[in-house]
Amino acid sequence: MKRTILFVDDEPNVLMGLRRMLRPMREKWDMLFANSGQEALDMLAKAHVDAVVSDMRMPGMDGPQFLRQVMREHPDVIRFALSGYSDQEMVGQSIAPTHQYISKPCDEKQLVTALEQAMGARDLVPNKTILDKIARVEHLPVLPEVYNRITAELAKGEPSPKLIGDIVARDVGMSANILKLVNSAYFGLPRHIAAPQQAVIVLGINVVRSVILSLHVFSSFENIGRVSFSLPMLWGHSMRTGAMARAIARHESLVKEDSDHAYIAALLHDVGKLLMEAHCPEECERVQTEVRAQNRRVAEVEHELLGLTHAEVGAYLLGLWGLPDPVVQAVARHHHPQSAQPGIGVENIVHFANLLDHEIFIFNEHYAKAEPSPERLDAIGGPERYAAWRQAVLSVDLGSEEP
């Protein structure tokens, strides 16, 4: 089935250039072109569109205003911002409604890869009701304590980028948002930035300030009377799993890129739980009731009752944001009993880092503990390697469970 992409720009030459550049994609994509935000909205009202790619600076309705309206009226449409380096002051306005940034002028391969990956990520969530809810999410939830610490540092006359980076690194949601932005095509960096501390230094205080000020989703947790799991425990689990993945990658002497991917995927592997808790509370409550009553695994019950798991929901949003495909796939499959890729790769490292943290740290005595499946053990070379990984992570300082 062909995908439909809508390109929006007030400059006819830009649209003509995109049409010409993307001619090889005509067999796979139906492409629409609009020269204003209003014309694009009229097209969206008449036809199904999979993704929009919008210029930032347009007369009348600018790019951020257009994308925000698309987010409200057509939440399942993937939203890209096409922007030049003179648009940096608009980054703060466009962060919320934008899934990814593409630099202008853009490279054909880069644009095609980003769109194909984002549209493929949506296929990870077969439940349309949950997809519509998650598609409206602007940012991952952030703990109020973390938000307050960063806000206090930003309020100083000369805030410290290193200190802000250290605070960001302690929070899963904030790390995801910062890494999303710094690794977008908009900044055109020659290599992937894996550490939040480095990302803060690269982005600069002003951009970070706009990111922090736009993060309102944390308030969704303040307004929930009852959360079905402990947020500090989830944060601790995510941080430890990231540390374990890094230790395993170091034990296996993985190249830096694979090691970074394993760390990021492990750090973010449970972001789907945050999204579902904030935006699908009734579904989460049904799942947790069954988990506690029957001593079953969360992912197993999610799949049975909802037709998907938090792993797929998290991978969906990370895919929309353009995180590397190995990260997206590792997050999506971290509960699968079978490995898609045999060997010592990112997917298997994240899977076993998650299992090891659940084995070493008891979160809830009512939750059934997952055991390594024979298929996954075979994929990494047998139980002996799993035992060696266990020893490797036990030698690491895994830090506190508190955020």
Low-confidence runs? 216-220
Average predicted confidence as pLDDT: 83
**Can you tell me the CATH class of the largest domain?**
Mainly Alpha
**Can you count the helices?**
22
For the report, how would you describe the main beta sheet?
5 strands, parallel
Number of domains: 3
Structural class estimated from helices and strands:
alpha/beta
Q: Which of globular, elongated, flat, extended, rod-shaped describes the shape?
A: globular
CATH superfamily of the largest domain: Hypothetical protein af1432
- For the biggest β-sheet, the strand order reads 2-1-3-4-5
Proportion in β-strands: 5-15%
Overall CATH architecture of the largest domain: Orthogonal Bundle
Helix content: 55-70%
The CATH topology of the largest domain: Hypothetical protein af1432
By DSSP, the count of extended strands is 5
Gyration radius from CA atoms, angstroms: 21 Å
Give the ordered list of helices and strands. Answer: EHEHEHEHEHHHHHHHHHHHHHHHHHH
Distance between the termini: 44 Å
